[in-house]
Specification:
By secondary structure, the chain is of the alpha/beta class. It has seven helices and nine strands. The chain has one domain: Rossmann fold, CATH 3.40.50.150. The strands form two sheets. Strands 3-2-1-4-5-9-8 form a seven-stranded mixed beta sheet, sandwiched between helices.
């Protein structure tokens, strides 16, 4: 029993190191495994209900910014087919190559979403299953990024966890990092950056258990 606290501390340290390493490896992981994931990705479009609400809030024909766009199929393709040009942003060039192949007429930008500054605002922003791979501090830093890229009235759609914390999943057998802030903190960050919450559903049973946020930038 005397050694138990030291063993617990060692376990906690190993856990922190695993989290930090997995968080730092996200871009490299998607460079290695993203194309295989994209090929196997379910295209049933279980997100349709949320995407329809998001698109309805955007002004007709508005250009949308897909942050962490991946291969662009099915989400960006669906929004494009609803009459919204899409600009995709991803840090992994392998994923952008697939995006350009799937949406050859769309604009694609290679960039890390952290600190993103494209120099223009868009009629809607989406960060579906991408933003939640950032560490908590980096997530907090994304809300000013959302603000500078959102036109007044533009909707913002993103996924998170149901409560604050970090978790490790797997992608092709490799550790895959996820994190979430508490819902109240997301609400505060949205409000402080000029957005109001339209809807928030934790672990939506109609969307394979995703926790979804739909917000909208206030008019200036």
């Amino acid at each position: 029993m005397i050694g138990a606290p030291r063993e617990a501390q060692a376990g906690q340290q190993q856990g922190k190191e695993l989290m930090t390493g997995a968080a730092d490896d996200i871009i490299a992981l998607y460079r290695r495994q993203g194309p295989a994931w994209a090929a196997a990705r379910n295209r049933r479009l279980y997100e349709r209900g949320w995407l329809d609400r998001f698109a309805t809030l955007a002004r007709p024909g508005a250009t949308l910014l897909d942050i962490g766009c991946g291969a662009g199929d099915p989400i960006a393709r669906y929004l494009r087919d609803k009459g919204h040009p899409v600009t995709g942003v991803d840090a992994a060039p392998e994923m952008l190559a697939l995006f350009r192949e799937n949406l050859p007429d769309a604009t694609a930008e290679q960039a890390d979403m952290r600190g993103l500054d494209l120099g223009r605002a868009f009629g809607g922003l989406i960060a579906w299953d991408s933003f939640f791979h950032l560490a908590p501090g980096d997530q907090r830093g994304m809300f000013p990024v959302f603000r500078i890229h959102a036109e007044p009235g533009a909707p913002l759609l993103f996924t998170s966890g149901p409560s604050g914390g970090e978790a490790i999943g797997t992608l092709a057998g490799e550790p895959l990092y996820h994190a979430s802030l508490d819902p109240d903190e997301y609400r505060d960050l949205l409000d402080a950056n000029g957005f109001y919450v339209v809807d928030h559903v934790p672990e939506d049973p109609a969307c394979t258990g995703h926790t979804v946020w739909l917000a909208r930038r206030r008019g200036d």
